[in-house]
Write a structure and sequence with these properties.
Elements (H helix, E strand, L loop, with lengths): L10 E4 L7 H7 L4 E6 L2 H5 L2 H11 L3 E5 L8 H14 L3 E6 L1 H15 L5 H4 L11 E5 L11 E6 L4 E6 L7 E4 L9 H19 L7 H23 L4 H14 L14 H13 L3 H16 L4 H12 L6 H18 L15 H11 L15 H12 L9
Parallel strand pairs: 1-8, 2-3, 2-4, 4-5, 5-8
Antiparallel strand pairs: 6-7
Helix pairs in contact: 1-3, 4-5, 7-8, 7-9, 7-11, 8-9, 10-11, 10-14, 11-13, 11-15, 12-13, 14-15
Amino acid sequence: MNNFNYYAPTKVVFGKDTEKETGRLVKEQGASSVLVHFGGKSAIASGLIDRVCQSLKEEGIAYETLGGVVPNPRLSKVREGIALCREKKIDFVLAVGGGSVIDSAKAIGYGVANEGDVWDFYAKKRVPTACLPIGAVLTIAAAGSEMSNSSVITNEDGGLKRGCNTDLCRCRFAVMNPELTYTLPDYQTQCGCTDIMMHTMERYFNMSENMELTDGISEALIKTVMKHSKILKEHPDCYESRAEVMWASSLSHNDLTGCGTDGGDWACHQLEHEIGGMFDVAHGAGLAAVWGSWARYVYKARPERFAKFARNIFNIQETDDEKAAVAGIEAMEDYYRSVGMPTNLCELGIDATEEQIKEMADKCSFYGKRTVGVMKKIGAPEAAEIYRMSNDKSIPLYSR
């Protein structure tokens, strides 16, 4: 195992009606003026925004509201939020929503607390030195942004989807009421479950020695989400399943499932960022669509790791590691299909041209300035090949 630091400072308040505690939690942070940041009309129609704002009023805390965050949150909305915060002298940003809203709130926090263009931090031109304090009321179990150090924003100019990771943006608190996720459409629920599992799988597939305990936690988390994602297809208002998935969302991306490893591969996320940036697809669906092609491209670099995944997640009994690895990849794709997730770009509704494939590959490699992944180093040519594999549903299930 590798040496590691584990830092998870977010206070979690979990359970029914916990959104009513938001005002008290904000007051504990010493805030005097809050930006309540949220997504679409559902947060208003459900009464959630009113309940959150009422809790702020009861604590004597002033607030402004800014809605309109969309999936793959936009830089233009971030800039709107930065301007509003500066005008109203906001000193705390409260995200009411899922990962997109939380990521947007973090970007606003960076922009207000630092001079210059906030996009510089996502374009890797500068590193932020401060961030307004952030809190979250979670309404979607998926991204894990409520306990992570990550924020991902899409710049409409060029369709660039980029991330900024620092501990400065970690939420001070996260309110998690599983009941708030009851009304999510099934597709959004399953996209969220896919994202949750992928955050753990990205860490699981690595090139280091691994801790038995970390592997056990990771495998239990993946199997738990798979089990409850299927229950939620039939029983979307099952509190126990919503609670299991919501807690898994946070644990999958607060670095717990990466302790003692090299940090994991993360190529699938980088590949999906370009799919999301170009085609504006749901993040979880994009991850499912590219994972199988990535796995077939890299598994021979460490077949025993993929074989362990196959045996411990799917109870595959094959003793040959390479055959077990392939069987595990196929089993994972079967699971995706069982919950309505795509396993290639075609099933995602995309028929990418060769020009689009090359553009995504170039952007993924930062135009030749980086590679992604640890199992295999993936530059523009390798990324293009993975995109082609995912784009061609006629390709048989074979090993590269």
